[in-house]
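#onboarding

Welcome to the new folks! Below is a worked example of what a typical request in this channel looks like: someone posts a single protein sequence, and someone else replies with the predicted structure as tokens. Don't worry about understanding the tokens yet, we'll cover that in week two.

Example request:
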Amino acid sequence: METVTPARTLADVVLAPQTRSTLDQALAQVRNHHLIFNRWGLGERHTSGQGLAFNFAGPPGTGKTICAEAIAHELGLKLLVVNYAEAESMWFGETPKNIVATFRAASEQNAVLLFDEADAIAMPPVLGRRPAARTRKQFDG
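Example response:
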């Protein structure tokens, strides 16, 4: 896990207009979280899952990490970069614990969390293992 003080900004990121518009809307939701979930009462109807997740996809070198850094910069937060392969364990039950600890660290540091090389999460299970499903259940539970 690496903590990064973001230097890149959204001006450094090249996005299609529709993608940029979607990103701007998502950032507005983050900036107005208290208003939306507390003052407007949406938090009463949605008591969990109030976070926001971005899924960047593309081959190496397309700017996924730069975009995450720019988002953190825009929000005035640190960026916590985790290589998913390093969080995954060969020991049964350890991967979910590692992932939960990572989310906890991001929360405690008030940081944007980036799972780099996270395509491993979406890969088909090997030997019946489904770490992402177990992790989500453990984190939501």
